[in-house]
Every structure is written in structure tokens, then in C-alpha cells.
Amino acid sequence: MEPDWQDRAFHHHIATLIDALDGPDFWTRTTRVIERFATFDNWVALVFIRGRAPLVCAESPMPDGTVDLLFRAYLEGMYQLDPFYINACERPRAGLVTLAEVAPDNFRMTDYYQRYFKSNIIGDEVQFNVPFDAQRTLIFSLGAKHHYTERDIAQFALFAPWVIALMRQRLAYESLIASDGVADVPQSEAVEPSALAALREADSAGRFEAVTQQNGRTPLTAREIEVVRQSLSGFSTRAIAERLEISFETVRAHKKHIYAKLGVSSQSELFALFYEPRAREGV
């Protein structure tokens, strides 16, 4: 069967991506090919690292050329509440991942959703994931102001095999391996050098320990920290009980003890304590 001109153009675009694999504009070119067939509003290529801040390979520029402060806040700590990050760390797999697949049952009720996701991503998100060792996953995220339709998801799924294949090949050209085993990133496309070391130390355990040590607070136990993290991520009390294999009432008791230890009375205060700099500095 004679291919039509659109098919020929598509194959040409894939060829240009293969040529761009070792170049600085690979990610930008990839988005340009995909956006010919599906509509999205922002994109980012990251390395998810279990227990550490994600590292930036490339990201879509702001329309006015300014720094995306919300995205910086994400890198500084809110990534810990990202359902895509949580899923990639807990169940790493290669392929297309949708928000509907990974979002906790109370995700849209969380402060993370209301204060970051709704403002920055706005509507929906999909990711192409490529785990490349036990700790790290290369991800390519496409965010939209609208909710993706079934047709959109089907289109992304259709593209997934070649996108994933190209991402695997791209790994050889990303500066991902440092001497300490932590991914490294070109400084021009990541955060400022002065912030990079801080981001690498901003794992969840360190963040929670630092906050609970302020003003002589009683430290949270490891189980209480896990309950806080899952609660702020959007897992309901029942879902947390199932995930931790404990009873519903035990989770409720943990939450009561957490609020008493930290001197907070709401989920929003809990979020502010751990993820809003002014709140952390002022306590």
C-alpha cells in the first residue's frame, strides 16, 4: 500500500530524532514531533532518584523567559509528594504512565495538588519512564492544561515504543553517573550550583528530621513519618492502612500523635510545616 505524505513526514521526523540523539536539542525536537499529533502545554525530562531530589535533563522554557519558581519548589522538596515519583520509586517499570494510574484516592484534595499541581500542570500529565538501575528512572513528562482524552492517551501509547527506545539510547549521552553514584546534570539546565548540594541532601528523612528537631519537638517515629508522607501525598486513612498493612484505627492513632507532637491541627498546617520555607523557618 502506498504510504501517504503524512506517513512519510512522520518517518522523516523520527529520522531527525535519531540524528539528534547525541545533541543538546534532543528533548526539544522530541516534543516537536509529539505535539504534531497530541496537544500538551509543558514538558520536562528528569531523572527520578529514590530518596533524593530529581535531576533535570531539560525542561520547557517559561513563555516570558523567567525562572519557574513553582518548579524550583518541586525540586526542593515537593517531588516527595508527586504520585509519579512515588510510583517510579516503588514500582519502576518502562512504558507510558498516566496520572489516573498512579494518583492516590485523595490526590485532588491535597495541598500538593491545590498549591503546585493545579497551578503548574493544571489539568493532566503523562510520563514515559525508563528505569536504568535499581534506584533511578529517566522520565519524560508531558503536562496539559486540559484533561487528556481517551484518544490522547491512545496516541501517547502508540508513540510509547519509539519514545522509550529513543530514551534508552539517549541515556548514553546524558551526564547521569557521578563518582558517588548520584546522577549528575549540566549546570545550565539544572539548578544553580549553590542549590545543587542542598537538593541532593533534601531527602524526605532529612527534611522530616530537621523540622521535628526545631523548638524541641518530640521526634516522629519512622512509622509516623511514613504516615505523614503518605497522607500529604493523597492516600486516605484506609489506603494508608492497606499500604502499611496495619489497621484503620492504628493509622488514625498515628495521625493523632503526629498532630500532637508537631502542634498542628490540620492537613494544611502539616503541609506548610514541611513544604513551605517560611513556615519551616518561623517555627
From TrEMBL:
Keyword Nucleotidyltransferase assigned: no
Name of the protein: LuxR family transcriptional regulator
Segments forming domain HTH luxR-type: 213-278
One protein family per Pfam: GerE
Keyword line: DNA-binding, Transcription, Transcription regulation
Molecular function terms from GO: DNA binding
Source species, domain of life: Bacteria
Transmembrane region(s): none
UniProt key word Transcription: yes
GO biological process, one term: regulation of DNA-templated transcription
Organism this protein belongs to: Paraburkholderia eburnea
